[in-house]
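Q: My collaborator sent me two sequences in one message, no labels, and asked for predicted structures for both. Can we handle them in order? The first one she listed is below.
A: Yes, handling them in the order given. First sequence, followed by its C-alpha cells:
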Amino acid sequence: MSLLDAYKKATNNWDAKKDKVQQSQAIPAGTYEVMLEKTDHPVYKSGWDCLRFDLQVIAGKYTSRHEQIRVSLATKTPKGKAVQEFIISRNIRTIVKLGEMIGMDMKPEYFPDNETDAYEKLAAAFKPYEGKTVQMVITETPSKKDPDKLYRNYDFGPSKTTIETPEANKSGNDNGGSDTTITDDELPF
C-alpha cells in the first residue's frame, strides 16, 4: 500500500475537526479461524486481575489481527458488591468452551475458591495448548443502560483449519536425517 493509499484509508469517513486520532481497530463481529497465541494472568495497576487469552486470526481478511479476551472470575466488585451470578457463569463457560474446543481436559480443580489461584492454574493449564486452532464467533450486544455501548460476546467451535507442524526426523537432528559434521578445515575463519 502506498502512502497515498494509506492516507485515503485513514481519512475516509473521518473528520479531523470532530473525530479522535485514536479510533478502535477492533475486529468486527463475525466468525473467525483463530489460533490461541498466549494465555496469561495479568495484574493491572488498579489491582484488577483476570485470565487473558490472546487469539490471532489465521485466515481471511483479518489474518494476523489479534483479539484479546479478558475473563474475570471475581465474585465481588472493587466496591465489595456481589457480581451477578450470570456474569460469573458466562465467564466460566467461556473458559470451559475454549478449553474443550482446543482439546483441553477441563477439571474442577482449575477453579479453586481464590480467583487469583484459579487464574494461575488456568494459565498454566492452557500453556501447552498455545498454537492450537479454534473457530471464534464474536457478537455484539448493546448495553441496557447505554445502548451506544456494545458488549462483545464470544463463542467457540471446532476449527476448520489445521496448522501443520513438522515432525522430528528419526535421526534426532533437524537437517533431514544427514549427519552434518563440520571440521576446523571447513570453517571460513
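Q: And the one she listed second?
A: Here it is, processed independently of the first:
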Amino acid sequence: MGTDMKPPNPVEALLQEPEQQEALAQLLRDLPLLVERLEQLEKSVSFAEHVLQDKTTILPYMKEAEQKIRQTGLTKAHIDALLEIARLLPEVAPVAKQSVSGLLFVKAVLEDERTMHDLLNTRPRIPVLSDTNRLYEAKKNKKQKLSLRRIWRLLTHPIWKDMFLYVESLLETIMLNRKKRG
C-alpha cells in the first residue's frame, strides 16, 4: 500500500480560502500605487540625505553668520521689528513714493530763483481779508459815525452772539478751574 499522500501544506490551504484570494487580488490591483509610493519614499530619503550632507557643509557658514549677528547686538526684538517692517512695506511704499514726489517738488521750487523771488516778494492774497480791508477803507473815508443803532445791530448779529457765548463759556470754565484748585 503506497500512500501518495503528502501532508497538507498550510499555505496552499490558506490560498484556497476566498477571503485570501480577494485580498491577494486587491494587493495586485494596488501594486502600481504601492510601487509609486515606495519610489516617492526613496526620493524623500535621498533628499533628506542631501540636506544632511548640505547641513554639514553649510554649518560653518551658519555659525559664522550667527557670530556676526551676535557681534552687532541685534536681538530677537530687532528681528521681529524687521519682520513687522517687511510686512508693512506694501502699505508704506505708496506713501513713501508720494512723499518723495512732494519733496522733489518742494526742492524744485526752492531751487528756482524766479519762483522764490515771487513767493517772497508778494503778499498772499486772501479774498476775505482783501474785501474786508477795502470795505473798511471805504467806511473810514466816509467817516461814518458809530451810532447806538449800528452798535446794537452789530451786537445782535449771530456771529457776535456765538462769540460772546463762547467767551462767556471760557470765562466760566476758568472760574470753575480756579475754584477746584482752591
